[in-house]
Amino acid sequence: MGFLSDRLARIKPSPTIAMTTRAAELRAQGQDIIGLSAGEPDFDTPSTIRDAAKAAIDAGHTRYTAVDGTPSLKRAICEKFSRENGLDYKPSEISVGTGGKQILFNALLATLNEGDEVIIPAPYWVSYPDMVILAGGTPVIVECGIEDGFRLTAEALEAAITPRTKWLILNSPSNPSGAAYDHDQIKALTDVLLRHPQVWVLADDIYEHLVFDGFEFATPAQVEPKLKDRVLTMNGVSKAYAMTGWRIGYGAAPEALIKAMAMLQSQSTSNPSSIGQYAAEAALNGPQDYIAESRAVFQRRRDLVVAGLNDCPGIDCPTPQGAFYVYPSIRGLIGKTSAAGTAIADDEAFANALLEETGVAVVFGAAFGLSPHFRISYATSDAQLTEAVARIRRFCEGCN
């Protein structure tokens, strides 16, 4: 009998973390590495939020809190949903966790039984399938290719639903593609879901505020009020307010699900950081001008990267609607050989060769369930992005 659990054999380490780790190793060896694999803003947390955290420490707010969030933070979250999304929730319908990932994991663990199916559009955030598997469910991957704008269609959703389907995970804007669903595209999906009352929606809205070109964000519970009692809307402060390390995410859902998630959290991590919660409350209640300023920077960087990549032989880079990622196709490079003699058999070989031969760290598309692509995070400086794109161009020009 082995010591480690059999369930560990069903999942794999995060490929994004693996690539970031490899890039760090090469950098430590003295190599000039440009890391474009990590998904976090490169800005400082706004000073008003940092000041609120310091004040909370000085006021002695360093003890345990309610398991799934302080009453004042839950009220701030309710006000956020009302103000920004037109959604009415009570504090008892709010859960606060140690990052958005815990909200997702708690919800899946609280609801999935062996054999229950979860529809996951691909490309997907790398953690979705593994979280479903750890909770005992079965991921049902639906490929949403470049020809569909990396978005799930109503027809594909209808075809994927079975009597065992319990959840649809919908991430908009998306990690890794940056694709976002507008009101009408979401409405087409919710029309399908209304015909299947056993299916719930897990709406991952973590990139809500990072949308470009006047795109109007919408979320399923807002688009179709009849579905609200079957939606968990997850969000957080990590991306919009550059608070990745503060580890505060939150979700809104019917009270019965929230209570079940709180019970799980009480037996795992218990409450999120008290100081992180006070900082998140300041983020939601405080000045919001920071968001528009960071959005403008990200849009400029997006345009720089998209234009540069589309000048690279063999690469086709669509323009994303949001987040801070691009997800280019390398179909034109498959089967070629790099200048250093590496065979580009697939997108993983491409990403590895790119790192070893040029010092640019990206994440290969197979990690996100859709090949042949790769993901770039443009949450870094214009100078770094310009140099990275130039290195990628030289790499592609050297392939034959």
TrEMBL record:
GO molecular function (one): L-aspartate:2-oxoglutarate aminotransferase activity
Reactions mediated catalytically: L-aspartate + 2-oxoglutarate = oxaloacetate + L-glutamate
Residue span, Aminotransferase class I/classII large domain: 32-392
Any single GO BP term: amino acid metabolic process
Source taxon at top rank: Bacteria
PROSITE patterns reported in the protein's UniProt record: AA_TRANSFER_CLASS_1
InterPro entries membership: Aminotransferase_I/II_large, AspAT/PAT-like, NHTrfase_class1_PyrdxlP-BS, PyrdxlP-dep_Trfase, PyrdxlP-dep_Trfase_major, PyrdxlP-dep_Trfase_small
Class of the enzyme per the UniProt entry, highest EC level: transferase
EC code: 2.6.1.-
Transmembrane segments: none
Pfam family, one: Aminotran_1_2
Keywords on record: Aminotransferase, Pyridoxal phosphate, Transferase
Known cofactor(s): pyridoxal 5'-phosphate
Family that this chain belongs to: Belongs to the class-I pyridoxal-phosphate-dependent aminotransferase family.
Subunit field text: Homodimer.
Protein name: Aminotransferase
